[in-house]
Amino acid sequence: MSPAIGKLLAQRILLGLFLILLSSLLIFAGTQMLPGDVAQAILGQSATPEALANLRAELGLNTPIYQRYLSWLINLLHGDLGTSLTNGQNIAAAIGRRLSNTLLMAGVAAAISVPLAISLGLISVLYRNRWPDKLISAVTLASISVPEFMLSYILVFYFAVKFGLAPSVAMINPHMSLLDRLHAIALPVAVLVLVVLAHMMRMTRAALLNVMQSAYIETAELNGLGRLKIIWRHAMPNAVAPIVNVVMLNMAYLIVGVVVVEVVFVYPGMGQYLVDHVSKRDVPVVQACGIIFAGVYIFLNMLADVCSILANPRLRHPK
Known about the structure:
This protein is an all-alpha fold. Helix content is 77%, strand content 0%. It is globular.
């Protein structure tokens, strides 16, 4: 590894850690500035002033906000996400179950959407300005233009209600087999694939077309190489950096931005868990979900930067 790569990697990692720390501060401050009283929300409107005062002291709401933040941050660094205010359950254990469900759905959607988007991008470049390119662009742009909830209801109406090919509610449990789980999450996975497919495909197409205008591509064409071989062997390696960036951004969306899809399909994932406890004003759960979402998003963006740095030949082979 060259010194330039090592320096850039260290800068990206330190920047990622700083952003996570800044995100934790913003998340904690944002939840503390929410209107209303947590103790009042837990005990109800009929609670006595003595009971409210005792609960506030028990929850540590009487201590200064900076002390509460430092205590929460220290517990977070030790893997302690706290206890839910509504049911008294350990948040880390509950999130572990929910996060595995979200990762399952996001992983299946990524396994389908990434190779499909890259393949469609290659086909669009191979048949540029011809009917395959125009058809792919029209379909993908139409899918990304429809809101997620509307796309979800359209798929539910046709594939669940009208044809009965998939369940309208994506309920899974630990006792189900892998095939049963895949069948249960077929519709939410299809929605996620349609949402992220267009962005990745368009970026793949744009990156390849930009590289195809280079002089060495013209040289390869003059040497008689086929167009597909030129794209795959010469254009793709030099267009990989922006493609990796957009793929990682969409992978982050598949994990962080699935709240709407999970709510529509009543899927027991992180998004549904967050929405349920926001309505109950369960601040520790909201804080835990927020920092996990922020950490995943920052980590995947940092990973995209690292992959782009490692894919740069000028950094890998300095003069």
